[in-house]
């Protein structure tokens, strides 16, 4: 298989996890899709700078993360939805408990500081090791471990999770009255 075809296949395989990470950062599916598209375009354009045999997924996540922060700097003058009023008008109440629990978790995730949210998404949802996440974020491994630990503790606090019994079907939704 040619190097270009192998690179292309690697890009395509990474799209779902890139999109999930982009949604967690951008908090908007359309912006996340644009972010993933821009990441793929930049990666394709700079594929000669990628070193075969290294972690393509981590390289792509670094590009995506850098692109996100570049866009954030450009959008400083945009009006933010700080209190979530606009977002609340667009949300739809889920019809199943699993959807409700997921919505509650997403709201709780949005309450985390950006560095903690990013760390827990990379390690907990995207499957990166602490070392890979530290490389993507440009910080020490201990810093990532600390951020993940603080994020987990804060999520438990926000969702009212005290122990394993709280993971039974429907239990998280019962405790999330403080998530708004």
UniProtKB/TrEMBL annotation:
SUPFAM superfamilies referenced in this protein's UniProt entry, alphabetically: Sigma2 domain of RNA polymerase sigma factors, Sigma3 and sigma4 domains of RNA polymerase sigma factors
UniProt KW Thylakoid keyword: no
Keyword Transcription attributed: yes
Keywords per UniProt: DNA-binding, Sigma factor, Transcription, Transcription regulation
RNA polymerase sigma-70 region domain sequence ranges: 15-77
Residue ranges annotated for the RNA polymerase sigma factor 70 region 4 type domain, each copy included: 104-155
CDD domains linked to this entry: Sigma70_r4
Any Pfam family matching the protein: Sigma70_r2
Similarity section: Belongs to the sigma-70 factor family. ECF subfamily.
Protein name from the UniProt record: RNA polymerase sigma factor
């Amino acid at each position: 298989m040619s190097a270009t075809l192998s690179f292309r296949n690697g890009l395509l395989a990474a799209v779902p996890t890139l999109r999930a990470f982009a949604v967690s950062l951008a908090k908007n599916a359309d912006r996340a899709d644009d972010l993933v598209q821009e990441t793929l375009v930049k990666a394709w354009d700079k594929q000669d700078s990628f070193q075969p045999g290294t972690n393509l997924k981590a390289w792509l996540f670094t590009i995506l993360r850098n692109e996100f922060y570049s866009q954030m700097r450009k959008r400083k003058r945009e009006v933010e939805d700080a209190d979530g009023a606009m977002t609340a008008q667009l949300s739809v109440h889920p019809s199943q408990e699993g959807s409700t629990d997921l919505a509650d978790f997403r709201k709780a995730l949005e309450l985390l500081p950006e560095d903690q949210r990013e760390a827990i998404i990379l390690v907990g949802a995207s499957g990166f090791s602490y070392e890979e996440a530290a490389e993507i974020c440009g910080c020490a491994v201990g810093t990532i471990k600390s951020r993940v630990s603080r994020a987990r503790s804060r999520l438990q606090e926000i969702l009212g999770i005290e122990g394993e019994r709280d993971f039974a079907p429907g239990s998280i939704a019962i405790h999330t009255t403080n998530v708004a």
